Structures are given as C-alpha cells and as structure tokens.
Amino acid sequence: MTAVDVDVKKAEELERQFDAEMHFRPLLPPATWVVAALLFALSCFHYYTAGFGLLREQTHRGIHMAFVLGLIFMVFAANRRHADAAPVSTWWKPGGVPLHDWALLLAAAVASLYLPAIFEDIAFRVGNPLPMDVAMGTVLTLVVLEATRRTMGWPLVIIALGFIAYAFLGPWMPGILVHPGTTWSQLMDHLYLTSQGIYGIPIGVVATYVFHFVLFGVVAMRIGLGRLFLALAMAVAGRFAGGPAKVAIFGSALFGMISGSSVANAVTVGSLTIPMMKRLGYRPHFAAGVEATASTGGQITPPVMGAAAFLMVEYLSLPYQTIIIAAIVPAFLHFFGVFVQVHFEARRVGLRGLQPHEMPDWKAVLRADWVTLVPLAGLLWKLFDGSTPYLAAFWGITLCIVVGLARPAVGAVHAGGGAVAAALRAAFMDLVDAFVMGAKYALAVGGAAAAIGIIIGVVTLTGTALKFATIIVGVANDGASLLQGFLPTDRASLVLLFTLVMTALVCILMGCGVPTTATYIIMVTVAAPAMGLLGVAPLVTHFFVFYYGVLADVTPPVAVAAYAAASMAGADPFRTGNTAFRLALAKALVPFVFVFSPSLLLVLPGFSWGDFLFTLAGCMIGITFLGAAFSRYMLMPLAPWECWLLGIAALPTIAPGVPSTLVGIAMAVPVLARQVMAWRAPLSRQVS
C-alpha cells in the first residue's frame, strides 16, 4: 500500500450505515433541492454570524432551531426501515417525503420563530402566558420530542417524558422527591418562554459553538487534511511491531483533533487500518476493538473534542482554552493505555510492522498536503489568542475555503485558463457539498440539545437537583459505613469513592441508549451537585462525567463505535465491544485519578509540578502493568499468577499518593524480576 487516500464519500456512507444520527433517508426532487438549499443556508448562516457577529440570543437560537428541527423531518424518516427503501415521489410524498413531514417542517419553523417574534413583550408574559404562547410551546415540545425520536431513538425521549410526568406527579412522590407539582400552562411557560428550558444552554451551545466545529471538521477533511494525518501516522508508527494497530491509534488521535466523533473516526481511519491489521495477523475482533477504542478518543482530544466540551464553557464560565489544556493529559493517558496493550499483543503474537513498500512516502505526502495544516494552525492560533471559539472556527473554515479553492487552481495553471476555471468550479462545488454535509451532521445533536432543554427545565422548575444530590450522598455514606473497617482510608475518601462509582455506572448505563452530549448534561445536572457537596471542583466533576459518557461508545450492549468497527472487520460485535472496553480501561481509571489528584488537569488552583509529575508517572506505570496483565505479555509471556499480581498491583500504583504508588510497584517487583531474568536468559546463552 503506497497511498492513504481517504474516500470521503465512502466514509460518509459507512457513517450513515453505522451511526443512527447519520441514517438519512434518500430523497428525490423537489425535496432534494429544498433540503440541500436549506442545509447550505444553515451553514452559511452560522458561518456568517460567527465571523460578523451573533444575533440577539433568542433570535439566534430560534433561527437555528427552526432550521434544525424542520430539516430533521425532511432528512430522517419516521420509521427507520423506510429510510432504506427506494424513494418514490407521488402527490402525497413529493420528493419521497410524506405531506405530514412537510407539515411538521412548517410547524417546527413557526413554533421556533414565534418566540423571537414576541421577544419585545416577553417580559410581560413570563409567569402569565397567553393561550397562544401555551399553544406554541405545546407544538414546539411535541416537535422536539418527535425530532429526537427520529434522530436518537426512544431512550432520550422516554427520559424526557419521565421528567415531564415527574413535574405533574410531584405531590404524590415519595420522601425527598415530593414537590408541589405544576400545570401544563406553567410548564409551557417555563420550558418555552424562559431561557431555562428548550431555549436554554444546550441549544445555545450547539448554535454558538458545536455547529461551527462540526462544519470545520467536515470541510477540513474535504481539502485533504485526513490524508495527511494518516500518512503522518503511518510514518510514525507503521514500521514498529503490530504497525497497523499503532497507526490506528496515532491516526485516530490526529483525526480526533478535527472530528470529535467516535463513529466518524472509526469508519474513516478503520477503513484503512482494519484490513491491514487483519492481513498482518491480528484477530478480527481485536483489530476492530483497537480501532473503536482509539476512535473514542476523538471526543476527548483537543482542540475540537466533542460537543460536551463546549457545554463546559457555558456551565463553568471558563475560556475554551482552559478546557483544551485540562484535556491534554487525560487524552494522552487514554491513547497511551491503548498503545501499551497493542504493543504487548503484537509482541506476544509476533506480529511484524509494515514494510517500506507498504507505507506511503510521507515526505511526498507532506510536500503535497502541508498546506492543509494551515487551517488547523489558524484555528489553534485564534483559540489561544483570546478569540471566542466561534470566531476561531470562522477563521479555520475561511482558511479551509481558501486552501480548497487555491490548490486545484494552482495545480491547473499549466493547463491553461479553461482548466483553471474547471478546477475552480469543481472545488467550489465540493466545498458547497461540504457545507451541506456539515449541516446534516449537526442536525441530530441539535434535536437532542432541545430535548435536553426539556429535562433541565423540569429540574429547575421542580428544584430537584439538590434532592438528587442528597440521595446520592446518602447512599454513598451507607456504602462507606459498610467498608470503612476493611479499607485503609478515611471515611470522606470512601464516601467520595462510592459517589464516583455510582456516577460512573449510571453514566455507562445511560450511555447505552443516549448520546454522549445528552448523558453529560443529564449527569451533570444530577451528579454535579452531589460531588460539589463533597468538595470536588466543578471542572473536575464535569470532566469525570464527560469521560464516562464517552466510554459508553465502547461499552456493550450498545457500543456504537465498536459495532461500526466490528462490521468493517467481519467480527462478532459483542466480542469486539468487550475487547474495546478492555482496551479502554485506562480511560475508565484516569477520571478517578484526577478527582483525587486534580493537578493532572493542569489548570486548577493549587497546581504543583511535583504532584503532577509523580501522579502522571504512577498512572503510566500502573497502566503499563494493567496492559501487560490483560495481554499476558511483558518482556516475555506472563504466567497466570503474574497476570493476577500485575493486575492487582496496577490499582495502587495508579492511585495518587506516594505511599500507594510505592506499594503497587513493590507488589510488582517479583514479576518484573522474573521477566528480566527470563528475557536475559537467551541473551546470556548467545554470549556464552
């Protein structure tokens, strides 16, 4: 293999196949023209406002919702089985879209834009809504729930309906969960007319930040940045033992910088690395598991990360630059954990690296594609010079457009003016298509954000956030009482540990059917107050929930990234999910570490280089122990007792604190000594 061309169209088709958020239905004219025009207009609207000034908050969010919710009914079929059927255009299905979906598009647009239209009078209506306000709020609520069902499935809708039911059943709830209840008019007043419901922070973050970075990632891929990333990954890691698997890790880390999507990473990088891994001898489920686990790192890899990272900006009132810096070390530890297990597996099985003729000439690729790094460099420059994230995205997209148009034109200069014009037209149409696809990719998260607004609105209306926190801390106290005499630690640490374990389990369970962003917001609403009561810094709490929400992408029974990779590898999906979860154990342990040692996040008050370096070293050593135990190999094959001892020793080694780390290393000394002696024995015989 001498090239690393990324087939963008094929990658988009694979994403459509494996990611429910991309399961678009086929269309015929006139629906094709209407949808393409609206998608392009949506991207242009956000591109323009990012560079030349946002509109008034409610107006900006209302226009965004009108586009997003309306387009969902055009792009997503009511029944997903219908999305795979050949489209048929009739008078009741113009363009393959039923008339009731055209009606829902209109209803979504009217209900979304009604609030900005009455904004001048809204101060007089909050708390005393008019019948028309209640009617429009009802329409928008129903539209949001149906749009969420089409894009995300039933789980998030059921959760939202459960919260709505809780709003009415408050007087009959048990114990601490009791509240006075509400009426439908009061509920619509809160969800629709205030900024604490559907028009709240989640939809605002999507409309202000997330959309722009999704668009940047799509356009950057179109101009060739993905091809350059894969070439660099192969140059760095391809020649070492088990090279393709290490290429998957480095490639996914680089792709994660611009995509922020687990499935997008898996299908793009995996389409190249999974066949190579299988050809060199990796078992299909392991090859798929490596790609899936590495790909989940996309949501935690700066600078783009996932949508939840932008929500932190709003919830915590912190600069996005701070979030990026805090994410660096945890993201590194995630990829380091995957790399360690891949390396040990390759050494155990005896897998070779790639030969020179199997790798691209990275120098030639760099000479050809170095210019595609300019938009990413511009994005980073603007992020760290104090600009807002959306202005940084604007300049990143602008530079992508310049590069995307200039490269083909320059390449065609020698062929004459006609060739230059043709090249410019083709490049321009490709960029237009990228704008259309970028908007398409952002529809699902926009619908989910509106649904999450319903959940948050009920929580703020009923005042139950602190009640949930009290319940969680109470259960953690009971658990700490049971184990206090058996573990060598103080009661406060045990209570915190139980709280973290419960939060992590709920995040994983909820992530089985709810996207990462929704899981993050719901769990922050519920868990953040509980962890706050125990003295955990808000940034640490948000990162903990964020990481466990991402982990759900490789946690069976619903592990979307793992299942996408499994299908490409021809592997058993459940076995792939189990393998991916095992490979992601570093990501599962690291959040516990930065809760007890916040220096790992770099940006919190009280940061100490000594504490940071010691904690980082302990994490890396412990992750290495754990990787060796699961791989059954270190310097040489491990005996069963060595695997068990290393696995047990890894936990205190990773735990922050000098005593625990030294205890863990001491526990591993017998294994390390035997491994060194076994490794040196053949060398000694050769010398003699």
UniProtKB/TrEMBL annotation:
Q: What does this protein do?
A: Part of the tripartite ATP-independent periplasmic (TRAP) transport system.
Tell me the Pfam families matching this sequence: DctM (PF06808)
Q: Which residues form the TRAP C4-dicarboxylate transport system permease DctM subunit domain?
A: 140-603
* Upper taxonomic lineage: Bacteria, Pseudomonadati, Pseudomonadota, Alphaproteobacteria, Hyphomicrobiales
TM helices/strands, residue ranges: 31-50, 62-79, 99-119, 156-177, 197-218, 225-242, 248-274, 323-344, 390-406, 413-429, 441-461, 493-514, 521-548, 554-571, 583-606, 612-631, 643-673
The Gene Ontology terms for molecular function here are: transmembrane transporter activity
Subcellular localization is given as: Cell inner membrane
User: What is the originating organism of this protein?
Assistant: Vineibacter terrae
Q: What is this protein called?
A: TRAP transporter permease
Q: What is its main location?
A: membrane
Stated membrane topology is:
Multi-pass membrane protein
Alphabetical keyword list: Cell inner membrane, Cell membrane, Membrane, Transmembrane, Transmembrane helix, Transport
GO cellular component entries = plasma membrane
